[in-house]
Amino acid sequence: MSIENRRIRFATIDGLGREDLPLAMEVWRDDLRAQVWASRDMLKLATLFVRYMADARPEHASLSYAERIYQLDRAQIQQCLRQMQIYGAIEAYSLDCDHLKVAINLSILQRLRVLKCRQELEGLIDQKAAPMHPFPLSGSPEWLPEQADISLDDDQVEEVEAVLAS
Questions:
Q1: 1: pLDDT confidence band, cut at 50, 70 and 90?
Q2: CA dihedral defined by 90, 95, 100, 105, rounded to 10 degrees?
Q3: Inter-helix orientation angle 108-129/21-34, to 10°
């Protein structure tokens, strides 16, 4: 799917690349969550936007999907979008038939936060390559508990099979 055909996208992403989009969505949603005017329904809708940006299937940007998965009806969606537009979280929106189209507004400060977070993530990746790191960062996680070795004798196996059969 080409970027022009995406139903939910950023109005402007100057200074950011395609690889920054997931991080930008997280920053945008985090800022929205911190607003006093943001309702639970807005956060549900913002989560829908984030999930669509991660997996841009057209059915994820449909009103029927929002109704079924997020329990939001068309009036609630329209009210949330209108309020998001008034406060500048989104630039514009359209509700055509069953299709939802949204242009998300990523402010300059949010773009700076994305760039700073990306730089910090790159720093973590560089630390991962450093040989003298005190914590293992690659391979299998060592903090998981070991799988218990469960061996049953014949009587216990029969009891378990009897319980499962009933």
A1: very low
A2: -10
A3: 120
